Amino acid sequence: MQAIQTKFAGAWRLISLERPDATGNVHRVDCSGLFVFTGDGHASVQVMERSPLTAPSAGPQQYSAGGYEASWGTYKVDESTHTFTFHIQGALVRSLIGKDLPRTYEFSANRLIVKSTRSDEHWRVVWERY
């Protein structure tokens, strides 16, 4: 196992999710969630909005349906670029299946900060190790 993967391995609870609304203003989403990484390269994420919007979230890619996001698959870390790629094998939003979702990451104490690598996505998620 790569040394960097040992930093990911474990269960992480969602601390905050920030994303832009339809007008481009970034706001904090009232939600909870869990991201689990295994040491052998598997991952699963679930996020539930407490008061889901009736319309899909603004942005080029839809990750949730009805205020709920769930997907699982494998991940690979590139320590040199501070990115990991989440390969989706199963998801509530079926258009995600088979996609590779590259993400930037940063560790800060017991927290993992994740952002999209896409220039047209401006969300940020902070996870804290259980």
Description of the molecule:
The protein is mostly beta strands and about 130 residues long. The chain has one domain (about 5-130): Lipocalin. The protein is built from one helix and nine strands; from the N terminus they run αβββββββββ. The protein has one helix spanning about 5-10, and strands at about 10-20, 25-30, 30-35, 40-50, 70-80, 85-90, 100-110, 110-115, 125-130. It has an eight-stranded antiparallel barrel with strand order 1-3-4-5-6-7-8-9. A hairpin with a 7-residue loop joins β8 and β9.
State the secondary-structure class.
Answer: mainly beta
As a whole number of angstroms, the C-alpha radius of gyration is 14 Å
Which CATH architecture would you pick? Beta Barrel
Number of domains: 1
Dominant shape: globular
Q: Average pLDDT across residues?
A: 92
Major sheet, described briefly?
8 strands, antiparallel, barrel
Q: How large is the share of residues in beta strands?
A: over 45%
Helix content: under 10%
The level 1 CATH classification is Mainly Beta
> What is the number of strand segments?
9
* CATH topological fold name: Lipocalin
End-to-end distance: 21 Å
Quick description:
The chain is mainly β. It has one helix and nine strands, in the order αβββββββββ.
